[in-house]
Amino acid sequence: MTLPLQLHFKELRFRTSYLLFSYLLSLLIMLKYNESIFFLETYALIYLDKKRFIATHITEVFFTSIYAGVSLSGAINFPYAYYHCRNFLVPSWYKSQVWFLSILVVPSSVLFFFCMFICYFSILPSFFHFLNNWKVALNYALEIQLEARIEIYTYWTLQTAYFLSNTTFIFFTKLLHSYLLDNMITLHVQARKFKKYFLVFLCLFTSFIVPPESFLQIVFVIVLASLVEVLFLVTCVFFAKNNV
Does residue 68 register a pLDDT over 80? Predict the structure, then answer.
């Protein structure tokens, strides 16, 4: 006689095996077509007609391909992972819990991939265009030849894209969760209580993270403080709506 716990572990083992197989298959396909992956990764810099990269180690290109393949395979297999997690948990959940999970995860995931797309094809090209103009300004004083290193460039672009997308994902998920939970009443109370402390934390965070340039730090603080105020305004609207 098979115990229910054994059946659950068996199903979990099968689903994990399918997910790992899909992940490894995606990774092998990306390593097979690594030139296409490199073209996708370097689009932001190729946008400026910069088609030269350097590698200082003989294994740098290989490990860069592995890093890019692992990162992109994880993003591609996220819907498949969500499918397995949902089907594994649904039989023991109420319909309201399944609906809550779908409403919470699906829009946030769509926003995550949308932010990845915007970051790669809009934000990063604009940022590199700014850096390219800075290089041109420096050339009036002295001759500087800049070359992009493929490993550092790939690490930086992927980390930046994932950081911005995950920040947006967490922000939107928290906002949507609070809306579904109690129409943002609790979030408004917490925001009103801790807003001053959070603004002070942003100033300290900016002083440690952002380069010691007064203009950059002021702009960074203003942008983050504006986002906090927008979030607080949204919670105020829902709070007032629920108390009218």
Answer: yes
